[in-house]
Amino acid sequence: MRLARTIRRRLLLSPLREAVIDDQRRWRGIDLAVGSLHLASVLEEATRAPRIGVMVPTSGLFPLAMLAGWTLGRTMVPLNYLLSREEIEFIVSDAELDAVVTVGPMVTLVGGLPASVKQLRLEDLKPRFKGLPRWRFIRDLPKDDPAVILYTSGTSGRPKGVMLAEENLRANIAQCRAWADFTRRDVILGVLPQFHSFGLTVLTLLPLATGCRAIYTARFNPKRLCDLAVEHRPTAFVAIPSMFNALRLQRHAPDDAFSSLRFAVSGGEPLPDSVAEGFRERFGVTIDQGYGLTETGPVTNWCRPHERRPRTVGKALPKVEERIVAPDGRLCATGEDGEVRIKGPNVMRGYFKRPEETRNAFDEQGFLKTGDMGRLDADGFLYITGRIKEMLIIAGENVFPREIEEVLEAHPSVKAAAVIGMPDESRGELPLAFVELVEGASFDETELRSHCRKTLGQFKVPREIRRLAALPRNPTGKVLRRALSPSTPGLAEDRR
User: Which residue stretches of 95-240 are H helix?
Assistant: First the structure.
């Protein structure tokens, strides 16, 4: 596999240089390169299946396992250890896995793996030979096999596997390198899980293929991240808005903790103005937004610092084509909202064992239908305005939940907000808001609705606002509106 060979060659060019630093150890180039060959020899004896699962914490163990599987020409299936046991069992069955590379604490965390699966626990494995491994292990992926299958939580139903070919991964790495001018002098700080597409491509494969150092921590701990930033002086940091918000509230971090950053990039969901402004005031660093999907490898847009514009996710990366399409299929004019559709070498092959869903995911011109609403300005900058399926229709007017959420999140007592629709006989539906408050804040529904009226048209003001101790989120911290419904109760003791 060309990508695996590129990474191994890069690691062996500087064999004693530290390539990865995680919570447990420091990995030199030779540790990862040779260690992955040793692990490949164990995997070859353990399983002949075309796909191998991997379930390890964010660390150097992940690239070790990925390289070992790719060395054997196998497809790797990262398992999301934050899912329920039932969901993990479904993925194991759907991907037809008979072996999973893991560690004991991960197995305990998920409540065990199916009895049919061999648990190749890294802490227990011993090399099957002495000295350097034999190079006969190295072979290419079969032509039609994907390099990875990433199972997404989706908007409803069972997880579905996104098939990313080696060419998709190599293309996205090259696109990001060219766009941001990454070199081996860069240092990338990573906390996003490596089973997530951004954690896989941007925080793992990109630094390994480029030769820059990656710093990982397995759990999001604001103090720990600030300490790592001070110690290692990273040049790039990618996180979701709630993480940036928690970092800006870290009281004991020095003001220059993140001064070494060339790029502070937010993705996964829209970045509230309050978080962006607060982080800049606290650390003197401006956050830029990026955009992408698991199906696109993932990065398609990235707003570079010299191109900064409020609320945009930036221009498309090289070789990425974007168009905005209206509900009737016509191309939208500049500044007009429609569905964002994407085409490029980084776009997935399809969904594993789901040919009909794969066909439905693309239009007649081969563009991926993202399901996201957005618009392009005259200079080609993309603005994400919401999700098509989450759009509210109030008395015939289209209302995007994110517009209301941003207003609520601008209130000093609100940490995060989620808006859904509730049925209404006269208007079709009305906005219903759920809020998570900042620590120590009191909940005043009347005050929050009054705050909304200052900015929003009356028909957009939530009919009701409910407080939750915590909004439902996916494993990467993104708020899940689909987990909320009009029957979801608020905290009764704080209702007014």
Answer: 104-109, 166-180, 197-200, 206-210, 222-232
- Tokens in use for 442? 């009191």
CB 172 within 8 A of CB 346: yes
Name the pTM for this structure: 0.85
**What are the C-alpha distances in Å from 43 to residues 20, 69, 85, 250, 331?**
23, 8, 24, 43, 50
Instruction: Name the nearest CA neighbour of 118 among 107, 131, 133.
Output: 107
Helix (H, G, I), strand (E, B) or coil at 481: helix
Q: Is the dihedral of CA 440, 446, 447, 453 positive or negative?
A: positive
Domains in the chain: ranges and CATH: 2-145 (3.40.50.980), 391-494 (3.30.300.30)
| CA gap 241, 289 in Å, rounded | 10
491: phi then psi, degrees, rounded to nearest 5: -75, 110
- φ/ψ region of 257 (left if φ > 0, alpha if ψ in -120 to 50, else beta) reads alpha
Instruction: Report the pLDDT averaged over residues 350-355.
Output: 96
| pLDDT for position 137 | 59
Per-residue pLDDT, averaged over 182-191, amounts to 96
Contacts of 495 (CB under 8 A, 6+ apart): 443, 445, 466, 467
**Predicted confidence (pLDDT) per residue in 302-347, tens digit:** 999 999 888 899 999 999 999 999 999 999 999 999 999 999 999 9
Highest mean pLDDT among 6-20, 417-431, 464-478: 6-20
Place of tokens 């590129």: 6
Output Rg (C-alpha) for the chain, integer angstroms. 23
